[in-house]
Every structure is written in structure tokens, then in C-alpha cells.
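I'd like us to work through together how a protein chain folds, taking it slowly. We need material for that, and I hope you will provide a protein of your own picking. Go ahead whenever you are ready, and we will take it from there:
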Amino acid sequence: MPWTHHSHSGQFCGHAANTLEEIVQAAIKKRMSVLCLTEHIGRHRQDFYPEEEDHHDEASLAKLYDDFYVEARRLQTAYEASIAIFVGFESEWIRPESLSIVRDLLAKYEVDIWVGSVHHVHTLPIDYDHTLYYKARDIAGSDESLFANYFDDQFQMLQALQPPLVGHFDLIRLKSDDPDRSFRTWPKVWEKVMRNLQYVADYGGVLELNSSSLRKGMKAAYPQVGICEAFRMAGGRFTLSDDSHGTQQVGLNYDKTLTCVEAAGISHLVHLVTTEQGDGDLTGKLPHVRWKAVSVAELKEHPFWTAPS
């Protein structure tokens, strides 16, 4: 039963490992029932990551997603008897032009799901390494100001796109000097957090409980327990994601993530299904898929938790 709604492969992502098919096979081995394949989208040339320098232009990087989409749909059909696969992408929000890239991709492909994420502040990737995080902080003036800038950028993304799934809501804390610090200690930042959470809850978006922070040394999944509590109280819904970048990370640290779920008082999680199976919708943006709610108590009874690693 456990699911992941956010994943990557080394075949189509320069900082990941393994083929896309190997990711699918790893999810099946872990007895997952839902796997969302959400590769990164193209970006403008000035925003390429170091590992993407072999892509000489924007068209070359964009073609990588085109190739991914074809392979992902092939795997969706090939493995439909073993696992429900959904195909989409993880978006970027770097500069005003980012909006056109996302909209063009949504117009080009009929995706099943997509993740709205922010990885950059002041056009710098704040999750790539400490050097770039500190450079962005120097521009902002302090950690507190940089966090505030991040949530303002995120709010712009939310307003412009209303993504059905919001990725690693508080990613900004990853490279900070105190990544487990409570956001409540900065009232102005917390106010922006609450604004964003309420907006997502109001349009019906879902927050992912992203376990990747745990493999990177943090004490809790994205988002922090306090943020999860606030979103729950706002009527928001949650799902599970591993944000895996290779087979070894598929379903990794879900046991610790479940501890965060229970600490936040979350009683139900949702996962993606086809229209015929679901009990909700994605605000009309993706009419062929829906969210289905499952109680945490039922989830804990699934064989996933005793599956071989």
C-alpha cells in the first residue's frame, strides 16, 4: 500500500542513479502500490546545474524530459499488473520565465501528477551545496531573511500554478546552519508559512511528507512536525514521497516518516488513483486522476513494513 509521489532516476537526472525501470522494479520489490515518476523539467541555460554542462543548450535538456515521458509511459503499461504508475514532473520556480516553461510542458503533455517545488532563491539553488546557500544568504542578509524570501517565492509559485502536489515544503532549511530549528522562532517567517499553508489548503492542494530530509541528516521529514500540525488544522491533506534518486532510496526511512505523521496527529493520508477509484479530485486540473484517503492505522498493517530491503 505505501506509495511515493515524487521520484527520480539516473537515466534522466544527472544527480541520481539507476535506470527508470530499475526504480520501478525496486518499488515493486518493496511492495509499493503507487509510484509516481516525476522527473525534473528543463530550465533556462543560465540555470543549468554543473552536472548538466554536457547539455549544450536548452533544447538538449528539454529533450531529456521528452525521452523520459516516452519511457515512463512504456513502463506504466508494462508493469500495470504489478503497480500503479503515474507520470508527471517536478517543476522549478527560479525567475519569472519559469512560469512559461511549466505552462508549456502542461500544454504539451497530458500528465497524471506534477510536483510544485522551489529549489532556488535569488536564482541560486539553495539545496545544492553550502557555498551556494551562503551566497543566497549573503544577498538576503540573514538566514531569517532568506527563509522569508523562500516562502515569498513559494507563494508566488503557488498563486501562479496551484500545483496539485507541493514538494518538500520547507526545503530551505536543508543547508542552513540549524536545519531542525522551529520556524515559530521567527514570527515573520512563521506568518508566511501559515499564509502559504492556508492557500494550499484552500485550493485543495496536497503536501508531500518527503522522507529525503532524513537521509540527509535531519530529524524530521519535510515538512517539520509543527508545519504538518498547522496544515492538518487548516484542513489540508498529506501524502507520502521518498524523493528517491536511486533504487537504494525507494521507500527509505518511511518508518521514521510514519513517526512524524503520528507526532503531527495526522490520521489519514491520500494517494493517487484513477478517476474511477478516488473520493476527491485535483481541483479540475487533472480530471483523470483523484486522491483516495487511507487511514494511518490501515497503512501500518500493510506488508511493506516487513518487506525485504
Remarks:
- The first helix runs from residue 20 to 29.
- The longest strand covers residues 34-40.
- Residues 3-306 form a domain with the TIM Barrel fold (CATH 3.20.20.140).
